[in-house]
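Researcher: I'm preparing a figure for a lab meeting and need a structural model of a single chain. I don't have an experimental structure, so a prediction will have to do for now. The sequence is pasted below. Please return the structure as tokens so I can convert it later.
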Amino acid sequence: QVHLAESGGGLVEPGGSLRLSCAASGSLFSISAMAWYRRPPGKQREMVADISSGGFTNYGDSVKGRFTISRDNRKNTVYLQMNSLKPEDTAVYYCHRRPSGSAGDFGSWGQGTQVTVSS
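Model: Understood. Here is the structure written out token by token.
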């Protein structure tokens, strides 16, 4: 079982920046693709960004050019650098480890961290 722990959320003014971190336990991190999702108030969960085990990245249209996902396999940690934040970025952000393909591995979800963009 891989445990994920997000940190770095909070309240920020429009135009500001935040950096989310997601620390993973266990040995599957380096072979797993990782992703950030978010659930805005009253809306469905959406994918924000993902990164393959080899470092290839993909972004949702609403965050392209503003957010950057990265990973450090030595620290078992994935990051989400969020710049030029907008009120519509307000959401609970979740870290997700995609199934690695290993037998019995169904992936993992973190508990979420609140990001609020408001003046």
